[in-house]
């Protein structure tokens, strides 16, 4: 693959040339795009804040790149994160590993809690089993004010699909030392009607990351939603 060379400001150091095709993004590319999307910033805005060319930023978002330490620091500052986070440092550590002590907590209204969990993603379901409490990470979707999980018929979630459960979603931002957590408590119900299953498939199918057959949909009808947000001082 042809590699573009850039100076410390991120500008092309030789004549304009076409990028290789097709795009082949690396881990850094995905982390830049993810963080920029979280902050709702355009490529133009990030490039201006990082003092690099928009073309170079677009290149980094499309292909594996090796920006200089200076450019990486500028990018991290523009994205309100750290160079280590952009490079994947701490990916195997629990969230909040570098968060300093101190901050204030505010309670979230149910409407705000619903807004935060509405996009779907990864959450944790809490079950009471014969051997004690069990908490499992799951992919979920938020459909018609209910949490929907897709699982296998022999899974622990399926075994407790008609019981009262707890479901939690959180977001921790190490760079800004802040985050939020939403807790849903309610009754679980298996989705057995084919028409209802088709509606879920057509709207927000919560596709699990692991491979395997996961044909059982479980819906959690909230009876109580609470949340907290921690803000850096």
Superfamily at the CATH H level of the largest domain? Electron Transport, Fmn-binding Protein, Chain A
Q: Structural class, from helix and strand content? A: alpha+beta
CATH architecture of the largest domain: Roll
Helix content estimate: 25-40%
First and last CA, distance: 46 Å
Please tell me the overall pLDDT: 82
Sheet with the most strands: spatial strand order:
2-3-4-7-6-5
Low-confidence stretches: 1-5, 11-16
The level 1 CATH classification of the largest domain is Mainly Beta
- Tally of separate domains: 2
What is the N-to-C succession of helices and strands?
HHHHHEHEEEHEEHE
Query: Main sheet?
Result: 6 strands, antiparallel, barrel
Concise account of the structure shown:
The chain has 233 residues and is an alpha+beta fold. It contains eight helices and seven strands; from the N terminus they run H-H-H-H-H-E-H-E-E-E-H-E-E-H-E.
